[in-house]
Amino acid sequence: MSSTNKLKIFNDPIYGFITIPNVFIYDLIQHPYFQRLRRIAQMGMSYLVYPGANHTRFHHALGCLHIMQKAVQVLKFKNVQISEEEENALYIAILLHDIGHGPFSHAMEHSIVEDVHHEQISLLFMEKLNSEFGGKLDLAIKIFKGEYHRKFMLQLVSSQLDMDRMDYLKRDSFYSGVEEGKINSDRLIQMMNVVDDVLVIEEKGIYSVEKFLMARRLMYWQVYLHKTSLVAEEILTRTLKRAKELYQKGVEIECSKPLYFFVENKISLSDFNDTVLNEFAKLDDTDIIGAIKNWQYHEDFTLSELSRIIINRDLLKVKMSDEKFSMEEILRLTEIFAVENKLSLQEAKYFVFKGKIKNQAYSKVAEPIRILKKDGSIEDVAILSDQLSLKALSKQVTKYFLCYPKQLVKS
Q1: Rounded to two decimals, what is the model's pTM?
Q2: What pLDDT score was predicted for residue 387?
Q3: Phi/psi zone of residue 16: left (φ > 0), alpha (ψ -120 to 50 degrees), beta?
């Protein structure tokens, strides 16, 4: 019998000491599926803008576990009935909520797999772990899928004011050095309560909610949707797509075995059997970085140039606008780049492309953040707030971008 001490603590720069609540949670953390998150960047390509943003999904998952423990303690203190089984299920669900993220996070969802969202892969991992651990994740999976009758439990895991958002705002703000993202998660958690199995925030916490939503909006514009991070992720996506395209044409592509599996095969959600899931579990950021370091020297100009652009941070020019860019302008730039580099128009499109980004800090359509007033009534924070800015945060803002090589700036 193992004498390993499984009730260990982690020293976290955000919260201090994080404790593991029980032996089973320790076993999940020790599982290779979860340990892979140590090698997955939390903020994708953002380190190209904010050099300190090198923290991992592993950091984030442990942080979420920690604040979930605090939330459960607060709710129990306020006489919200939570059984030991439910408590453990909440810890499992929040710990594993991001386990399905691929290398560099969202870039992978549109390149090495065919539009498979990371939450769908997270669920597949949870189901596989449930099989391995004899059904111990049954309730956690029900909560994660929104199938458990106690609605507030899903809200703690996934909502407009969940433990996931609370941790990533605070953590990403810390590591990026962007002060605008700081939130008072302790205050928000202390103000939580449950009425009729629905999560609410007590009225005296409304200003903390407003600050939280404002911080989220600013972090999206300043960090997550920063134009340099944006173009780097777009280029990475196109680099991987180009590698797959060349392979399909019979061109030799060198990379690690796990990455080669996804270059070689077209994988959609329906293809995710145990074999595919295990191959996905072997993938991390080092596979991608190692591949593009090699691809810099590939004979294909498109693949080598895209790889060089990322490795040397010699990124494309990004032009932002409130209006859509004309197809005529895009075609003109594409044709110039194609002629200058003796490329086909199809190849040149890897370097000249448009897109759009959206930012909405608070959605009136999604599950609302409910405020519990002193008289016992409950109101949507957007209605109750006296801040005009919060009403503005409910509106979706769309911006358009155009990316093209710097040498075309004067064209």
Answers
A1: 0.94
A2: 60
A3: left
Residue from 212, 221, 214 nearest 49 by CA: 221
Residue pair 89/140 in contact (Cβ under 8 Å)? The answer is: yes
CA triple 366-372-374, angle to 5 deg = 155
What is residue 388's predicted lDDT score, i.e. its pLDDT?
54
User: Helix 285-295 to helix 227-248 angle, to the nearest 10 degrees?
Assistant: 70
SS3 150: coil
Tokens of 13: 């720069």
Most distant CA pair in the chain, distance: 72
* pLDDT score, position 1: 39
Phi, psi of 100 (to 5 degrees): -85, 0
Alpha-carbon distance of 95 to 157, in angstroms, equals 9
Q: Which of 256, 228, 327 is nearest to 103 (CA)?
A: 256
Tokens 């009425």 map to which residue? Answer: 195
- Partnered with residue 202 across adjacent β-strands are 372
- Name the β-bridge partners of 194: 199
**Strand 370-372 with 198-202, pairing:** parallel
How far is 123 from 101, CA to CA, in rounded Å?
11
Joined tokens for residue 83: 């059984």
State the distance between the two ends of the chain, measured CA to CA, in whole angstroms. 71
Tokens of 329: 């302008």
Computed over its alpha carbons, how large is the radius of gyration of the chain? 23
Q: Which residue has the tokens 């329906």?
A: 270
Within the chain, which residues score under 70 in pLDDT?
A: 1-4, 386-389, 411
Dist. CA 111–CA 11, nearest whole Å: 35
Structure token pair of residue 88: 């453990």
